[in-house]
Amino acid sequence: MAVTTLRKTYKYRLNPTPVQAQALELVLSRCRMLYNVALEQRKTWWQRGQRKSATYYQQKAELPDLKRECPEFAEVHAHVLQDVILRVERAYQALHRRLRDGKAPGYPRFQGAGRYHSFTFPEYGNGAALDGGILGLSKIGRIPIRLHRPLQGAPKTVTISQEADGWYACISCAEVPMQPLEPTGQGTGIDLGLESFATLADGSMIHNPRCYRTADAYLRRCQRRAARRKMGGHRRRKAVKLLAKAHLKVKRQRRDFHHKEARTLIQQYDTIYFEDLQTANMVRNHSLAKSISDAAWSAFLGILAFKAACAGKRAVVVPPAFTSQICSGCGVIVQKGLSVRWHACPDCGTSLHRDHNAALNILALGKYRSGAGRAPQAQT
């Protein structure tokens, strides 16, 4: 049976009063404190030599006793506290998963005041619910919310997050109906790059906006301003806030670009093939790390895959090996360094931009893996 619904999160801005904003910050502070306490308990149990740490269910069962001993935690909704314990559990699950995969473990870290930014009501209607243009939060109050687009599906969870310019509510909904687009019968391969953000199999290129590079000079000034302020002072807090807003603007510009380009691709093509890029390994190249992070390929591909699912289209991953080296015309491997931007095949005479050549190879490989074409053959 075909899937006709999906899970989707809607993000809305909140307009709390100063008293409500202070209450939100207080809940956030106590959630951060509980997270650190739960993490410290697990760490202590392990260091005692028991070779095991406290489990999620043990720590969850201790919450009523904690609220009796520390009445300030009783002012936070019980489900919000339980979700904090669940976050600790997920951090340990991620640790164990990295150990199984042979990766660097990365022990869960304690959260400072500037690192913990959200708390969650895991059950919509129990502690958090919408009433028109008002979001009611248990033990916090009724906060006006900007519903700039209608909420669809069945709300499941509500996450309250603090960003540099204010508070936001992220409402996760299940059973959101898909919005399929008219099929075009077209498919393409895309090669992501830095000279141009992406190159399609028809040779067209998507301009790279370089959001961070464009704002780099202003970000440097903001950083210097914050660094010159006295630690703990009001002027430093103000400078740090301005710096955070500047970074947030760059982030939103990049995300807006990703959404618009992904939407355009989904409208034009039924199937889009792209490389399975390992950006975590690619950013180890210090000469390209900033530019790769600025392009944010992984974020774009995630948005592209989600929009394809919403529209009933396909976004398919293909292996990235030799897509730039193989000639799209005859399949001969033409070795060339990263600085060589033009593909010229000495055997068949194919001459085109290396990114265009890679996009054609990605398209051919994707069709072959889908059973609809012939794979590009690597010939030596």
In short:
The protein is α+β, with helices and mostly antiparallel strands and 380 residues long. It contains 10 helices and 14 strands. Helices cover 43% and strands 20% of the residues.
Describe the model.
There is one protein chain. The chain is globular and about 80 Å long. Helix content is 43%, strand content 20%. Strands 2-6-7-1-5-4-3 form a seven-stranded antiparallel beta sheet. The protein has a five-stranded mixed beta sheet with strand order 10-9-8-11-12, sandwiched between helices. The chain has helices at 18-50, 56-61, 63-69, 78-100, 211-228, 234-268, 279-282, 289-295, 297-311, 354-369; strands at residues 5-14, 118-121, 128-131, 134-137, 141-146, 154-163, 166-177, 187-192, 198-200, 205-206, 271-275, 314-318, 342-344, 351-353. The protein starts with a strand and ends in an 11-residue tail after the last helix. By secondary structure, it is an alpha+beta fold.
> How much of the polypeptide forms β-strand, as a percent range?
15-25%
Query: Which range best describes the helical content: under 10%, 10-25%, 25-40%, 40-55%, 55-70% or over 70%?
Result: 40-55%
Radius of gyration: 25 Å
| Principal-axis shape | globular
The pLDDT mean sits at 91
Q: Biggest sheet, in brief?
A: 7 strands, antiparallel
Q: Would you tell me the structural class of the helices and strands?
A: alpha+beta
- How many DSSP E strands? 14
Residue stretches low in confidence (pLDDT < 50, at least 5 long) are none
Number of helices: 10
End-to-end gap = 46 Å
- Going across the biggest sheet, name each strand in turn: 2-6-7-1-5-4-3
The number of distinct structural domains comes to: 2
User: Helices and strands, in N-to-C order?
Assistant: EHHHHEEEEEEEEEHHEHHHEEEH
